[in-house]
């Protein structure tokens, strides 16, 4: 797989959603090479299950498009690992953890999220990072935070994006060849849910159990009444203790 994301970056001042724009561009046939869409503001940012993602100025909001690729679902976990590595590059020793399947947490608050999908024979990876916002909207202030809120430090967004894209492209061939196996120990070290008892909701079903970790294909492993169950996805995970 050949790619050079740094050569194909499109910048926007304001857009509804970089993921929605990615789908529009793919549908129009205008995306022929790997491309990155970056915006200062999203007016209709999208999280998992079509939940709202607040995307005000100061954050880093971008989507990577890979034409003629159909990544498997574990690419979400892979992307989270790469993102975690770059955040620690800028913020050594920060209390950052990876929360399956698609979030980066600072202690018990969300700092970044990832949304991956396949669309018309292309893979789309959307990433939102709360960076330089000086405060969070009141409705999410108890569950979300930013780099600036926690450290008082502003991060140069273009510099961060460049570092992330370089690292993503460097690590991608290993992921494509061996899935998450080369990254398994790293994830285990920074697994936010490990050994926690959780309530997992999937469709109309609910499961309570202790998290054992993840598989090398990115499934969550949950010990439910002494039996291990694997989950490819979940609608919601609540920590019980």
Indicate the radius of gyration in whole angstroms: 17 Å
- What would CATH call the homologous superfamily of the largest domain? Bira Bifunctional Protein, Domain 2
Given helix and strand content, the structural type is: alpha+beta
Given the C-alpha coordinates, what overall shape results? globular
Describe it for me?
- 25% of the residues lie in helices and 33% in strands.
- With 241 residues, the chain is α+β, with helices and mostly antiparallel strands.
- Strand 9 and strand 10 form a beta hairpin.
- Helix 2 packs across helix 4.
- The termini are far apart.
Please name the defining characteristics of this protein:
SH3 type barrels, globular, 7-stranded mixed beta sheet, single chain, 241 residues, BirA Bifunctional Protein, domain 2, 33% strand, alpha+beta
